[in-house]
Amino acid sequence: MKDLLVMKFGGTSVGSAERMRTAATLSAAQKRKRPVVIVVSAMSGVTDLLIETTKHAEGGDDAGRKSNLRKLEERHVQACEELLPAAKRKPVLGGIRELVGEFDRITHGMLMLEDRPPRSVDEAIAIGERLSALIIAAYLNAQGTKAEAVNAAEVIVTDAVFGSASPLMEQTTARARKLIAPLIRAGVLPVVTGFNGATADGRPTTLGRGGSDFSASILAAALGARELWIWTDVDGIMTADPRLVPEARVLEEVTYREAAELAYNGAKVLHPRTLAPLVERRIPVWSKNSFAPEKPGTKIVSRIRSSNGARAVTSLGKVAMVSLEPAQATLNGTHVMARALGALARANVEVLSLSSSSYRQSFCFLVRSEEKERAVEAMESALALELAHGYLRPIDVDEQVGLLAVVGEGMQGTPGLAGRIFTAISRERINIIAIAQGSSELTIAIVVRREGLEAAVRAVHAECAMGK
Q1: d(Cα 438, Cα 435) in Å, to the nearest integer?
Q2: DSSP letter at 410?
Q3: What is the pTM for the complete model shown?
Q4: Which domains does the chain have, with CATH numbers?
């Protein structure tokens, strides 16, 4: 497997029959040169449709559930009919109807229970990737490239954290070598579902946000791949969002740490967990554009030749700032913080940044908007006694904020850089609400009012000359 290439195609890269054709063509071209494994997402919008359907079921809306089932089947049948000659459609159409039937069975159970058990949700929403893998593998075979759809639930072994499972690499490596390696040696191109796995005893799981990217990196590490290519709809990792900063440019190379920080703070190229399985093995990753495959993209590696100052700025608008403040200075703020963070961890809430003061021992942190209610409920439960007796002020939530993060390996030890960044923001008459910087000096995270977020991103990008 020394020359193995793993490629992952995101939802927009397999979002239509035309995009599936392109993904298959790119895969077949590489397959002629070396062994290839591809990992595929659900067609764009399908995962949202599946989640919406489970909510219809939970709410007792059978008409809405059945309407979405028809949409799901029709979209994939259409893709099949556009891609395959009539003589080769029958088994694939049968497979589509079988998978839609499986989804029907799961959601009908939810309808009867008026509930969405996490395990059942994971099993249901993995249907999207299974449909993509079925169609793409069939098209590859029809075009003369031997391929086989593989359900990652049979390969990727995870813990039992439904909705955001983590891989158990030793067991996954053994499964991958047993199930996928023989296909590769036989000259077959495995088309593996992204996003999903299963516990050791076979209970279906999903890998959470960015799960398809994560699946690809897990398999690349397990199979000892030479490199991983992640195909998206952008040219690579950029110095800023080009919709906000027209002069933003593609970075030729970034480090694993830079890529993870950018992804964590809003860059929509990959998820930070994606890189974890690759770091130890130093497997390079390419972020490439399937809509413009001739462009080189960005290479993600352990080290780059040189790095001076800040290299990119990214932002998140859909966030909420949650603040906790003791009502009196005698309350142990460190103890309160530990319990609050423990509650967030148990609720599987991601903390984007955290700032604290010294005297009052108050602190604030940022979470994604969709996780705000879960975060507040978890903390209210964990700190119920302190809140009830007035030892803590009521939890304050501010949703009119945004986060920008300035990232670069070369920021460490660069005199005056932070001052220049803050001055550039203040020149736009934007007030800085909170600041967080880790000891590595790799990232400076800054919270501002949401209405000033875009102007702040442009100001920092210009001040640090990132477009040059």
Answers
A1: 10
A2: B
A3: 0.88
A4: 5-233 (3.40.1160.10)
